Task: inverse folding
């Protein structure tokens, strides 16, 4: 059972917080200053005091403990984009793909829920309520083996 409540600062703050863990490594090599006598010294930014860069020295065990807090559990994957979705050329390549496919860019997310006319009566409006997986769809089809097993 999971207890979840609304974030105090809103959903934008939650996304900002999560993005630190999904798009970055725990600590870049450039922030490591030294490792000597069983201690690790690294640079960090003190946001509470005007974004000042400071150094901190920790025992190697404590440094590793803190570092491992940022390592994802097994089967979790960091979000990375390669190929067409790589950041450097994403806009240009996606536009090129759209031109080859003779399609247009999707509408902005704010207007993504667009009402469409019903294909049967042509009077009512259809809105997407849920996207079904192929397994869910096949269970509804009269000829599917899953539909025969469920009856």
Result:
């Amino acid at each position: 059972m999971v207890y979840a409540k609304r974030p105090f600062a809103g959903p934008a703050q939650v996304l900002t917080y999560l993005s630190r863990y999904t798009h970055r490594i725990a600590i870049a090599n450039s922030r490591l200053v030294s490792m000597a006598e069983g201690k690790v010294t690294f640079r960090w930014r003190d946001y509470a005091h005007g974004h000042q860069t400071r150094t901190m020295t920790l025992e190697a065990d404590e440094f590793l403990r803190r570092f491992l807090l940022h390592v994802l559990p097994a089967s979790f994957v960091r979000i990375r984009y390669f190929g067409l979705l790589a950041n450097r050329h994403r806009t240009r390549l996606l536009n090129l793909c759209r031109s080859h496919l003779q399609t247009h860019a999707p509408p902005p997310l704010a207007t993504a829920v667009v009402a469409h006319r019903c294909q049967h009566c042509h009077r009512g409006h259809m809105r997407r309520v849920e996207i079904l997986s192929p397994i869910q769809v096949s269970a509804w089809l009269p000829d599917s083996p899953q539909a025969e097993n469920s009856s």
